[in-house]
Amino acid sequence: MALLLPVREGVLRLEPGEQQSLDSLLRVLRAEGGPISTWMHVAQHLLAAGRDSDYEAVMSEVVDRQAAGGDTFSQVLAFCSLAEFTAQRAAADRDRRSRALLLSRSTELCHKAQRLSTGAQEQLPELVLANVALIKGDIVAARKGLENAARMRCNGRPSIAAQLALANLQFNQRNYAEALRLYKQALRTCPSCPPEVRLGIAACCLKLGSTEKADLAYRRTLELAPNCTPALLGLAVLKLHVSSDEQGVREGSQLLAQAFEQDPENPFVLLLLAHFCLRQGFAEKALQAAQIVYQHAPSLQLQGEALTLLARAHHALGRMQEAFTFYQQANQLDSKLPLPKLGLAQVEVLRGQPINAVSILESVLLDVPQWIDALQVLGRVLPKTSLKSTKVVPQFKEATAQRPKDDDLWELLGDLLSALEPAGALKAYNKAIEIKREAAASSGSANGGAHLPARLLNNAAVLHLRAGNSQAAYNLMAQAVQTAGDAGLGNLSPLAQVTLGYNLARVKEACGNLKAAEAEYKELLKQFPQYGDCCLRLACIAKARGDTKDALRWTEQAVDNPAYCSDALALQAGLYLEKRDYHRAKQVLDRLLEQADSRHETFAKLAMANLHAYSAPPDRRKEDSIKRAEVHYGHALELYRRVLEKDEGCISAANGVGCILAELGNMSAAKEVFLQVQEASAATNGFWRMPDAWINLANVYLAQQQYVPAIQMYKNALRKFFDNRSALVMLYLARAQYDADQLPEAKKTLTKALHLAPTDHKLRFDVAVTLQEWAVRTLNKERPAGDPGKYDEMRQAMKDLLHAHRFFSHLQQLGRGAGLDPKKLQQHVDFVVQTHDKSLKYLEAARHESEQAALRQQMATLQAEAARRERELAAKNQLAREEAAKRKREEQARQTAERLQQMKERWKTQATVQQAVEQGDAAQAAKAVEKSKQAAAAAAAEQGDEYNNLFDESEDDEDYVPGMAEDEQEAAAARQGGAAAGVSFQDLEDEFDEDFDLDEGDASEGEGGKARGQKAEQGEKPPKKKQKKSAAVLSDSDEEGG
Fold it and tell me: How far apart are CA 671 and CA 702, in angstroms?
């Protein structure tokens, strides 16, 4: 559209494609001297023509011009337009330094605009500053600026631009509910706003899952603006991507076709068309549409979308190299787009680089945390690598919370948690099974379990077996075998068939059905004679029956199989160790060390080191025992060291080293080792759980008499590994608390342990000893006079003595069956009885003392309450007095100020009268006198007689006549003032020359006048005659001013 500019010679026509020189345009504009709006029209025409540099040159000259006719808004608009243009240039600039300079320039222009609109509070500068903050990435400053702009006006009129910008910001921050509220508020504020505002409402409703409201908003937009292409696209998206039925796809395709006919060059229409073609399998057509968008895209973001679609189209056509190239280009162009990264990860998987794919997917999930597609790909790729899955597990949990009916997500979560959190993995597998069964039941299937995948059932059964739920594991394995049989075992690989059969026999063994498990293992051995795991399990069954000879026979059969030789030898060594046949155990371990691979060699060395540690004599009071123990510990330490040299991360070996050092008395070194073991175990994120490291470290702390860390370490081990249900660890904890003089805590701990192991008589004895010791300490405790807690503590101590006596008596009745010395028990019983009897009189004295202390405390409380009330009353009285004094001072200050103002008025009147007399203006003097009288009368009526009397006493003492009433005195003073003021005004100047020492008279009289002037200045009184006349005149003035 052409731009018409009126000039002196006529009209200047600027065509869109016309390339007029910048100098000619500026020359015309300067010659015409038109308003700023004309300059801005020309600049906008240049910008629309793509002449950015010319636009900036024109606008730079516009901001330097002075607005004609006080049109401040035009100048503010010019500053803001140039600032926004500069900010957009900064957003597109890749150079960090140049970008910073442009943003600084834009901010400076906005500040100039703000200084121009200081009184009007224009919102345009705030809007541009908020956009600058967005470009800088400062979301908080941008939101604050937009909130300030929403409270301002645009050229004196209300505007919803700031509300719309703030809503857009909230939408981009995924605060869809807040964005929807702002869009609705803007629509209520300005119902006549453009129809496109409703597009924001529709987008928010779509993101919030309210598809019906989104559909209504899009349709309302089309009613108001039938040619609105974005509304058609929104409806098409609703039908194509939200509706999954054929009718929705058909309606969506029709809407998309309508949008394409309406605006075939719209890049968003072409992008959605390319998506639709890919979804329908027309990759070539999608490739063409994406190519057109890429060639004509107006922004980098659209170019990135187009490159992504090009890559997806090539991906669908099997052209992996081209797809990889386009994915990379799209990622480099706009790193915030998630689809190119997902495509790169998929291509990396196909190229055999799963680790690279995991890295890319993790970076994608950082930008889009709950993207289901990326999570599903990552969940299938991650188990194929040796990488840890701890980072993505929380995201999978959040995804399952958002989509609780997605069975695939639950199964993937179980796969990820199986090595980290078996309990969580089991819950995830159970949830996936539950969802699949519900889906099968809703579809009318009679046997929902038969439709479950065998892999899912097998994995859940294995975790149930590890958790000790043998029956549940058996049921799941039976369903897995049934599912595989219905689908045809021939469709499964031989490895899968063997795995299912072996796991079924394994769960039967765990359920106690040893005969059925034995039969299953033997049947598997007939079908697969080389399956050595069955031989090992048959050896374990024989061991469970107590038939060690048969167990060794099965291990010998497994030893003949080279693939299972090492495992068989390890099991043989365990059998010999259980029989305490350390010699044969050592022979088997030596053989295992000779032929084992690296993994089994490490196990063999650890087992040999443990064998030496177990072989050391426990009683080392004799010299020979000490030497033999040192030899065994030395061999064990050397083996642990060799294991650690080969595998620095072997936690078991490090823990063994710490145990040997502690046995040798080197507690400091042992503590350092256990600390490192603890850190290494914690770093595995639950994959390797070693409670021995925590317990051993606590034992070292206890041996070093560091009771606080020892107690804390025992508590951590109880909570972390035993769910606070290990009687043995509780016994360790109670010992540490006892040594730390924390007898009440030790009593509680032992009581809990006794509930866990009620048949442990030694534990019961420890509880009784603790109760006895704490009661004796409480009774013998030295207390200050008047201790309020003395009676309660002594009464509790007597109860503890009774409980201890009951425990000791019960253990004494058990005799030798308790495993304790009867004489020692009798000593404890006698001691408790004697202590209880002696303490009765002290308990009575403590009760009497407690009652007296309670009475004294009650009296003190009453006295304190009375004192508090008295202080409150005194404070209230003092506050009342201060308020009264404050009011009095304020009243006095007000009166003083009023008197001062009246005195100023009187002096002003006197000066006016004197000036009028000097100038011979009798009328002015009379007017001043009359004004003074009126003011005096008004003040008297307002202030009262009290203030007039006070003024008369202070200023007119000579006019007071004793015996006259106040009204008569005021009348006489008025008559006297009137006589003085009523002198013939033509002779008034002569009269004043006689009565006053005027400056002119002093000058004419020479030195005499100067002398009289100096006396007047020094405050000497004039002669009586003159003084009386002066008093009369002043009296009139006083009345007027008073």
Answer: 11
Nearest alpha carbon to residue 5 among 50, 52, 40, 51? 40
- Contact (Cβ atoms closer than 8 angstroms) between residue 616 and residue 628: yes
- Angstrom CA distances, 548 to 542, 796, 1027, stand at 7, 56, 145
Q: How far apart are CA 982 and CA 1036, in angstroms?
A: 12
Cα–Cα dist 957/953, whole Å = 6
pLDDT at 123 over 50: yes
Are 399 and 423 in contact by the 8 Å Cβ rule? The answer is no
pLDDT of residue 686: 46
Flag whether pLDDT at 259 surpasses 80: yes
pLDDT at 985 over 70: no
Inter-CA distances, 728 with 572, 708, 732, 811, Å: 30, 19, 7, 20
Does an H or E element contain 117, and which?
none
Classified as helix, coil or strand, 832 is helix
Specify the higher pLDDT residue, 939 or 720: 720
Mean pLDDT, the chain, rounded, equals: 78
Q: d(Cα 417, Cα 430) in Å, to the nearest integer?
A: 13
Is residue 158 pLDDT above 60, yes or no?
A: yes
The answer, yes or no, to whether residue 465 has pLDDT greater than 70, is yes
Q: Other CB atoms closer than 10 Å to residue 748's CB: what's the count?
A: 15
Q: What is the DSSP string of 139-188?
A: HHHHHHHHHHHHTSBBTTB---HHHHHHHHHHHHTT-HHHHHHHHHHHHH
Give the mean model confidence (pLDDT) for residues 146-168: 86
For residues 866-904, one letter each, b for 16 or more C-beta atoms within 10 angstroms of the residue's C-beta and e for the rest, the string is eeeeeeeeeeeeeeeeeeeeeeeeeeeeeeeeebeebee
Would you say 410 and 432 are in contact if contact means Cβ atoms under 8 Å apart? yes
CA angle 1037, 1040, 1042 (to 5 degrees): 95
Residue pair 122/76 in contact (Cβ under 8 Å)? The answer is yes
Burial 305-323 (b: 16+ CB within 10 A, else e): bbbbbbbbbbbbeebeeeb
Supply the pLDDT for residue 690. Answer: 77
Q: Between 101 and 14, whose confidence is greater?
A: 101
Residue 963's region, left for phi above 0, alpha for psi from -120 to 50, else beta, is left
How long, in residues, is the chain?
Answer: 1042
d(CA 935, CA 906): 9
Q: Which positions ≥6 away from 322 have C-beta within 8 Å?
A: 311, 314
Q: Which pairing describes strands 10-14 and 3-7: parallel, antiparallel, or unpaired?
A: antiparallel
Distance CA 228, CA 262 (A): 9
Which is more confident, 163 or 1009?
163
Residues 643-663 have a mean pLDDT of 84
Alpha-helical runs (H) found in 443-531: 454-466, 470-487, 494-510, 514-527
Is residue 546 packed enough to be buried (19+ CB in 10 Å), middle (13-18) or exposed (0-12)?
exposed
pLDDT in tens, 572-617: 888 887 787 878 888 888 888 777 565 677 778 888 888 888 788 8
- CB-CB contact of 282 with 259 (8 Å): no
pTM of structure: 0.48
Tokens for 443, please give them. 């579809």
Burial 53-62 (b: 16+ CB within 10 A, else e): ebbbbbbeeb
Predicted local distance difference test score (pLDDT) of residue 445: 57
The Cα–Cα gap between 454 and 499 comes to 11
Number of H helices and number of E strands within the chain?
49, 2
Q: How confident is the model at residue 1017 (pLDDT cuts 50, 70, 90)?
A: very low
**Structure tokens, 40:** 């801005």
The percent of residues in the chain predicted with pLDDT above 90, rounded, is: 4
Q: Tell me the torsion sign for CA atoms 172, 178, 184, 186.
A: negative
- At residue 294, φ and ψ (nearest 5 deg) are -65, -35
